[in-house]
Specification:
The protein is α/β, with parallel strands linked by helices. The chain is built from 9 helices and 12 strands. About 35% of the residues lie in helices and about 25% in strands. The relative contact order is 0.15. The protein binds nicotinamide-adenine-dinucleotide.
């Protein structure tokens, strides 16, 4: 039986690719496509919105429908909407995969609260390569140790609304874990003015916004005499969309109970 998928943020860059990939996957069935109230896509067919050139007989709606045997919700929207959709998922008893980034602490708390009632997988990046990078960066940080200066640089397209990217923060958290540092104590977001000499434990995080860059991340580990650079470059959003749908299948097919799950678990990296 295919899994009934509800995609929120249907007309967005990610939403359109999720609809397209869902439509061609025999294990999945697009059951609903949701956009923000008043959005021009509401009422139109999801296939048309995704540019498929054919109808999927799924009209875009303003909210997630109750009932209808939903198997999973996949959310790539805006921070406030993601928290709201996690609460709806909990109320409906439906697992949710969240790719949306830039959530405030309070919105993260609401997502964690939803995870007490349904399975939730919230990942800053669904690409397999980036999740391998997280693991590798943690190991490299632990092995190189205290003396290396760590800096992270990310680049994204000029339409992205949050900075730094959720992926850069995920990378910084992985490195901080490897170094037994608390990211909140050592993170520095950009530098400007007379900032003084670099404190050794600092982790610098820098965001570039330009053109149509899908997503690039580099972690630098530098010491007098050498520098290690770990880089990931995404060239298509399909890498994220495929990973999110893989996570959705994993949550449903392995019958996960309520709780917070990670992409590393989906990929067997932990
Ligand atoms: P986008 O702006 O192109 O699309 C977001 C869509 O969500 C828009 O169409 C918007 O109208 C819609 N939306 C807003 N509020 C809504 C609501 N209440 N209900 C339904 N739809 C609503 O953005 P995008 O590039 O598709 O990215 C979306 C999010 O996903 C961002 O937070 C981005 O950082 C994140 N992202 C994550 C990954 C990952 O792998 N985790 C990858 C790419 C993007």
């Amino acid at each position: 039986m295919p899994i009934n998928v509800c995609i929120t943020g249907a007309a967005g860059r990610m939403g359109q690719r999720l609809i397209a990939l869902c439509a061609e996957d025999p294990e999945l069935r697009l059951a609903c496509a949701v956009e923000s109230p008043g959005h021009a896509a509401v009422g139109k067919d999801a296939g048309q919105i995704a540019g498929l050139g054919r109808e999927l007989n799924v009209p875009v709606t303003e909210r997630i429908p109750a009932g209808g045997g939903l198997g999973v919700i996949v959310d790539f929207t805006l921070h406030a909407a993601a928290a709201q959709h996690a609460e709806t998922a909990a109320a409906l008893g439906v697992p949710i995969v969240i790719g949306t980034t830039g959530l405030t602490d309070d919105e993260k708390r609401r997502v964690a609260e939803a995870a007490r009632r349904v399975p939730v997988l919230h990942a800053p990046n669904f690409s397999v390569g980036v999740n391998v990078l997280f693991k590798t960066a943690e190991m490299v940080a632990r092995t190189l140790g205290e003396a290396y200066n760590v800096e992270i640089v990310e680049a994204h397209h000029n339409q992205k609304v949050d900075a730094p990217s959720g992926t850069a923060l995920g990378l910084a958290e992985a490195i901080a874990r490897g170094l037994n540092r608390n990211l909140k104590d050592v993170a520095v977001y950009g530098r400007h003015g007379l900032v003084g000499k670099r404190p050794p434990k600092e982790i610098g995080i820098h965001a570039l916004r330009m053109g149509d860059v899908v997503g690039e991340h580099t972690a630098y580990f530098a010491i007098g005499g050498e520098r290690v650079e770990l880089t990931h470059k995404a060239s298509s959003r399909d890498t994220f969309a495929r990973g999110a749908l893989r996570a959705a299948k994993w949550l449903v097919r392995s019958n996960k109970g309520p709780g917070m799950y990670t992409m590393a678990q989906v990929l067997g990296l932990e």
